[in-house]
Amino acid sequence: MNEPTVYKLTPTVSADIGPVSDELELEAWVSATAIGATCCFDYNGDESGSNRANYNNTRSNRSVIRGPGDADSDADGLDDTVELRSKALDLENQLLSQTKAATDSISKRSARTGRRGIADMGDTIEEIQATLERCSDDVCVTVREHADGRKKLTQQAAAHIENSEWDAAGKAVRDVREIVEGDIELLESSLKDTSEASLGTPRLRELTGASAEDIVALYEYLAGEPILSEQFTIAVPDARLSAGNVALVDELTPRRLIEYVTGRADDDGHVYAWGDNRVSNENNDSSPLYEGDAVGGESALNRGLMTDDNTLYASDTFRSAISGPVDTGIHLETSGDNGTITVHVKNDPPQATETTPALAVSTDGSSPDRADFDEWGPENGESAVTSTLVCPIMVAPPDCPSPFPALLYVRRCKNADQYIYTGGWVIDDGSLYGNTITTLPVSGPTAVIGVGGGDLDGDGYGDVMARRLSGDGDHRGARLFDGTVSDAVAEGVLSETEGEDIILRKRPGRTKAQSEAGGEAENTFVCQPNHLSAPIVHFTGASAADDVKFKAGAELSKSVN
Predict the structure, then answer these.
(1) Are 55 and 39 in contact, with CB atoms under 8 Å apart?
(2) What residues are paired with 236 via a beta bridge?
(3) Could you give the CA distance from residue 393 to residue 409 in angstroms, rounded to a whole number?
(4) 444 or 226: whose pLDDT is higher?
(5) pLDDT in tens, 93-152
(6) 351-378 pLDDT, tens per residue?
C-alpha cells in the first residue's frame, strides 16, 4: 500500500469527417495509490506511513454495526440489538439458576421456599419479556415467545405447590429449565457466530448479496489492515485533431472517465474510454474515443441517475474491484463556504425526502447541484479546476471477503498544456457503523505545481518538494484521517465548529453541552480524505525518457499527490 502505481497509456485518437481524416497517438500517464489503516502518522511532521490512515483509534473500536432503524438509540456506542440480546442472555442465566433452586426446594417439599423460588422465576421472566419487547429480530422474537410459555408453566408450578402436587410442580419447573437452556444456547450462538456484523442493515445485505458469514468476515477485514481509500491522477495532453476540430478534452466527459476508472469494458475486453472501435453520433460523425453504448444504457450516467447494477469490475486504475455508480440509499449534503465545502453522507435519509445520491460541487462557492455526468461544469482558478463530481459505488479491495459501499469523486484541472484528471474512492463508513461518518472536503481550486527535469539537483525530488511546497498542509500531501472527532479537532483536521457539526448530524437535537457530557467527540468517528485539498505536483518534462517519467511519477506521488 505504500508504493504508488505508475503506468503509461498510449491510446490512438482518430477521426474521419468526410474526405478528411486524422490520427494521433497520445501519451497519457496514470499514478494511483491505495491507502490503508495499519499505522499512524503525525500531522505535526512525522512522515512515516505517509500513505496510511491515522490509526490511533483502530476500526476494531467501532463496535456499532448499523442495524434496522435506530441502531444505537441511547448513544452509548453499542448496537441496541446486541445490547438487548446480551441483557436477555444474562437474565436467562439468572433464570436457569433460579430453576435449579426451585427444583431443590420442590424436592424437599418445602412450600415456603418453593413459592418464593417460583415467584423469583416469574419476576425474571417478566424482565426478559420487557427487555425483548424492544428487539424485533428473529432471535429476540423466538426467545420472547418462549418466555410467554414459561410464564404459564411457572403459574402452573405455583398452583401445584399450593395443592402439594410436588411431582407435577417439579415437572413444570424442569420444562421451564429445558426451554431456558435452549434459549441460552440460541442467544450465545447468535452473539458468537454472527457477531454484531450480521446485524448490518438489510440494505447492506441487499447491496452485497453476502451471507451472514460474509458480513462477519467483512467486519473482521475492516478491523484488521484494510484498504480504506484509493486515489488516482491521470495526465493527458490537450490534443486536437484537424479533422472536424475534435478535441480530446471534449471527449473525456465525466461519464467516460468514470467508465475507464471503474473498468467498464466491451466483449472484446477493450476499455470504453480508450477503445479502438467507433460509433456514430447524431450527426453521423465518428467519436474518436468512445466504443459502443454506455454500460447500462444512455439513461444511466447521462441523466446523473444511479443504476441498480452493482457488478464489480477489475480496474486498471485501482487495486480494488469496483462498480459503476450505484444507488446505495444515501443522500449527499454539503456544509461550509467558498473556502472549503464539505460533502457529508447521510445514510438514513427520511423516506419522504427526495434524495441526492450524486452531487457536482463547484470550487467557486456556488450551490451544489445534482451531478451531470456529461459536463464538468465551470472552470475556476489558474488551474482551470472544474466541479467535483461525487457519487456512490461499491468496492472490494484485495483479500476483502465482501464488497462495501464507498464514494467515488472526480475532478479535472489543467497545467502546461495537459489536462489532469484526479479523484478516487473512500469508504462510506456510515453505511457500516452507526457512530461513524465519512466526509469529503472539496476545497478551492487545486494547486498544480509544475516540476521539470531541470528542477532536479543532487538532492533529488525530496529537496525539490521542500523548496516548492508551502505550509504544513502541502507537505502532508494527500492523506486520510481515520479516527475520533476529538482527535481530528486536536490534530487540526477539523475545526471545533466542524467537529460539532459532525456530531449534531449524527445525533440530531443534541446541544453542545449534552455532547460534551456524553463524550460523543470521543465516541464518534470520522473518515476524511484530504486528497482534494492537497496540491498536485505535475512532472512537465514531456521530452524526458520513459524511465525518468516513471521514476518522477513514483517519487512525486510519494511526496504529495
Answers:
(1) yes
(2) 419
(3) 10
(4) 226
(5) 999 999 999 999 999 999 899 999 999 999 999 999 999 888 877 788 889 889 888 999
(6) 545 778 889 998 776 778 888 888 898 8
Taking the CA of residue 522 as centre, how many other CA atoms within 13 Å lie in the half-sphere pointing to its CB? 5
Give the CA radius of gyration of the chain. 30
pTM of the model: 0.67
Q: Which residues contact 232 (CB under 8 A, 6 or more apart)?
A: 30, 31, 32, 33, 261, 317, 318, 422, 423, 424
**Could you tell me which residues are beta bridge partners of residue 415?**
418
Partner residues linked to 332 by β-bridges? 345
The answer to whether residues 249 and 263 touch, using CB atoms and an 8 Å cutoff, is no
Long-range contacts of 324-327 (CB under 8 A, 24+ apart): 324/258, 324/259, 324/262, 324/264, 324/295, 324/296, 324/300, 324/393, 325/258, 325/300, 325/301, 325/358, 325/373, 325/391, 325/392, 325/393, 325/408, 326/207, 326/392, 326/393, 326/394, 327/357, 327/392
Contact (CB, 8 A) for 488 and 529: no
Residue by residue, DSSP assigns 52-80 as: B---SS-GGG---B--SS-TTTT-SSS-H
C-alpha cell at 95: 433464570
Residue 545: all three cell numbers together: 525518457
Beta-carbon contacts of 250 under 8 Å, excluding residues fewer than 6 positions away, are none
Q: Are 6 and 29 in contact (CB under 8 A)?
A: yes
Give me the pLDDT at residue 317, please.
Answer: 87
Do 451 and 498 form a contact (C-beta atoms < 8 A)? no
Total residues belonging to the chain: 561
The H or E element spanning position 497 is: helix 496-506
SS3 readout for 132-185: HCCCCCHHHHHHHHHHHHHHHHHHHHHHHHHCCCHHHHHHHHHHHHHHHHHHHH
* The predicted structure's pLDDT at residue 324: 86
Range from 118-122, 254-258, 472-476 carrying the lowest mean pLDDT? 472-476
- Cell representation of residue 527: 473518515
